[in-house]
Design goal:
- By secondary structure, the protein is mostly helical.
- The protein has one domain.
- 77% of the residues lie in helices and 0% in strands.
- The chain is globular.
- The N terminus is likely disordered.
């Protein structure tokens, strides 16, 4: 795969930390995709008439579900690609001598699309959950919001969160530990990385949907939270601080159920 390595051998740390044309193109492409996704989200939010979140009928339909999943995918690209960029770029660096430039870019694109595809698939249960939430009374929904906030906060403090976050925060270690060569290898590693990311962030995304009703302020806030705990120094402590804040917010909603209405109505929709 790389000069001096057997084809199926994992790259060494030194070989994945350099920068070449493929890595640069990867970063630029991810930046452009992320910027386009955020522009779409901000434009949609400013154009929306419903200020309480994504509106939908009580009976789910295939057309409405497809539209929802498409919007969810754009939102996941905006929120998740920035924190996934180091891993994707490192994978691109391992491909610097792997055949033609088109082949290298193709493998990198497959890795990134595999990552994004798993997040896109989560839009299906998210849509169904949103339909169910739309049929629940305001009082019952308030207690659901409170319970979810507490549960999400406790997950942020859990060993499982730390394990998944460690994989997201250590792209070199993750890549070396799960190295697979070739197209199938890129697919497998992209899927494994996406699974770790999903395990790390599912609770925050549940808060976005249930407590935040997909409001624009919540999208921005949780997007920043995801990036901070994955990219900044001492990200584990940032995750714990977020967890404590969510538990306290959930307790406040349990005591004052009317706060749930403020949370879910606090931003323009996607």
């Amino acid at each position: 795969m790389l000069a001096g390595n057997p084809p199926d051998a994992p790259p060494t740390p030194a070989t994945v930390t350099g920068r070449d044309r493929v890595s640069l193109v990867t970063y630029v492409a991810l930046l452009l995709i992320t910027a386009a996704a955020w522009i779409h989200i901000l434009w949609s939010g400013m154009q929306a008439d419903d200020m309480t979140g994504m509106s939908m009928s009580l009976a789910p339909t295939i057309a409405e579900g497809a539209l929802y999943v498409a919007g969810w995918t754009v939102m996941m690209a905006a929120m998740m690609l920035p924190s996934a960029a180091p891993m994707i770029a490192l994978y691109a660096a391992t491909q610097r001598t792997a055949g033609s430039a088109v082949g290298r870019l193709g493998r990198v694109a497959l890795f990134a699309l595999t990552y994004l595809s798993l997040w896109a698939v989560t839009g299906v249960p998210t849509y169904l959950a949103s339909v169910v939430l739309g049929a629940i009374t305001a009082q019952a929904l308030a207690y659901i919001v409170a319970g979810l906030l507490v549960a999400a906060g406790l997950f942020q403090l859990s060993p499982l969160k730390r394990m998944c976050l460690r994989g997201c925060r250590s792209p070199v270690g993750f890549l070396l530990g799960r190295w697979r060569s070739g197209w199938r290898g890129g697919l497998a590693m992209g899927w494994a990385h996406a699974a770790h990311c999903l395990g790390c962030c599912w609770a925050l995304m549940a808060v976005l949907v249930v407590a935040g009703a997909m409001g624009l302020p919540w999208v921005l806030l949780i997007g920043l939270a995801v990036a901070a705990e994955k990219l900044l120094p001492r990200g584990e402590w940032i995750a714990r601080a977020i967890g404590v804040a969510l538990v306290l917010l959930g307790a406040a909603v349990a005591v004052r159920p009317d706060l749930a209405v403020a949370l879910r109505g606090g931003g323009s929709s996607m």
